[in-house]
Amino acid sequence: MTDNGACYRSQAFAAALDGSRHQRITPYTPRHNGKIERYNRVLAEDFLYARAWSSEQQRRDGLLT
After folding, report:
1. CA–CA separation, 15 vs 58, rounded Å?
2. Which of 20, 36, 45, 63 has the fewest Cβ atoms surrounding its Cβ within 10 A?
3. Do residues 24 and 8 touch, judged by C-beta distance below 8 A?
4. What is the pLDDT of residue 3?
5. DSSP state of 50
6. Which residues contact 13 (CB under 8 A, 6 or more apart)?
7. Which residues pair with 2 in a beta bridge?
8. Taking 80 as the threshold, does the pLDDT of residue 64 lie above it?
């Protein structure tokens, strides 16, 4: 779930999803954007910064597995 920014409408972003479902929020609906920000915070706390990664590539590989 993302907002409707140009970066989330690009072909590169669609390719990065690799078949995953993508849902956009309703424009001008701040409560939905809050849900997205909360999810990003949980993701960051529980995965991205839960341990020390030696490189960005190692973190990326961990996210994909």
Report:
1. 21
2. 20
3. yes
4. 81
5. S
6. 7
7. 24
8. no
* 3 state SS of 24: strand
Rounded CA-CA distance 10/36 in Å is 19
Span 11-51, pLDDT tens digits: 999 998 888 888 888 888 778 888 888 888 888 888 777 78
pLDDT(5) > 80: yes
Question: What pLDDT shows up at residue 36?
Answer: 80
User: What contacts 59, CB < 8 A, 6 or more positions away?
Assistant: 48, 53
Question: Is the dihedral angle over the CA atoms 32, 36, 41, 47 positive or is it negative?
Answer: positive
Distance of CA 1 to the CA centre of its chain: 8
Secondary element (H or E) of residue 29: none
Q: In what helix (H) or strand (E) does residue 9 lie, and over which residues does it extend?
A: none
